Structures are given as structure tokens and as C-alpha cells.
Amino acid sequence: MKKIFFIILFFTLIVGCKSNDENILRFAYQEKYLLDVNEKNIELNKNITDEYEKFNGLSNFNIPLNKYIFNQNYKIFIGIALENKPLEIINGYKADTTLNIIEVKNHKNNLNMFCKKNDKFAIKYIFSERKENLTVIVNVVSKDSLLIKKLYDEDKIVSKLQ
Q1: Sign of CA dihedral 77, 118, 73, 160
Q2: Smaller CB count within 10 Å for the chain: N or C?
């Protein structure tokens, strides 16, 4: 029964709703991301999912990829933790020896991390979804450390979440 619930929940999250406004990307239940002109929501495929799973690295957690946003300078992967609370996810990242957490800051009871894994830099923004209290992880990834650091310092990605 639990498995059926998670399959239905996963399907609902993946299908999501796309707003009539092409600049608003809906994910989870009621969360929104404001797309910039240079950002595009791309339909998920095996290559995108494999890249996400490789970078996310928390194989012991059930965090399926919900949305993928492409920009020529960075990629955004939005994952939804189906069974874990933010603190569990944060502790999972802290225990990940392949992830170098460079800086951490709290942002309105949520956590924003600037980190590096292999040759890529990332922002990992972790928060609880409003309606069902699911944990959302927004990963912004690029090889350009200065770009990611600037997006992190200016809370550019966080400010686009509604």
C-alpha cells in the first residue's frame, strides 16, 4: 500500500502543472519558479535523470527528480524527497565525502549551501514544500565557480521561488 501511495505521489509530482504563464514553472504541489528568458524547462529523460542522480549522490534517500531547467551557463535540478525531512537531507549531504561544502547560510528557516563536487560547483537550496511539507532540493550546477558563487551570494535562485 505504501508503495502504491508513493507511485501515485511521484506521478502527481512529475506531471505537475504548467501555468498558462510561460514564465512560471510549477512543481511539487504549490511551489513556483520564475523562469528567466534564458531558462527553459526541459522534459525529463534518462540522460538528465542519470546526471541528476550522479550529482545528487544521496543514493540512500528517495529523492526523485521533479523538474529540470536548462540555461547555457548552468542547470537546475529540482528534486522532491518523498520520505525525508530537511534535517535528514542536510545531514546526508554533510556525510557525503565526495561533496565539499564551502559555505552555508540559513534563509528564512531554509538552508542554502555553496558546494563543489568533482569539477562542478553548485547551490543546494533545501526547504519544505508548503502544502504537503515535502522536502524540496534545488540544485543549481555549473563548472563556472564565479557564476555559482554570484548566484549564491545574491540569492538569485532563492528569490525566483514562490
Answers
A1: positive
A2: N
pTM of the model: 0.84
Measured CA to CA, the distance from residue 24 to residue 113 in angstroms comes to 24
Is residue 89 within 8 A of residue 22, CB to CB? The reply is no
Q: Give the residue extent of every domain in the chain.
A: 2-159
- Helix, strand or coil for residue 52? helix
User: If pLDDT is split at 50, 70 and 90, which confidence band does 49 have?
Assistant: very high
pLDDT, position 20: 47
Q: What is the mean pLDDT of residues 65-87?
A: 95
Burial class from Cβ neighbours inside 10 Å (0-12, 13-18, 19+) for residue 126 reads: buried
How far apart are the C-alpha atoms of 108 and 31, rounded to whole Å? 16
What cell numbers appear for 103 in the block?
559555505
3-state secondary structure of 33: strand
Q: Which CATH architecture has domain 2-159?
A: 3-Layer(aba) Sandwich (3.40)
Residue 89's SS3 state is helix
What amino acid occupies position 123?
A: I
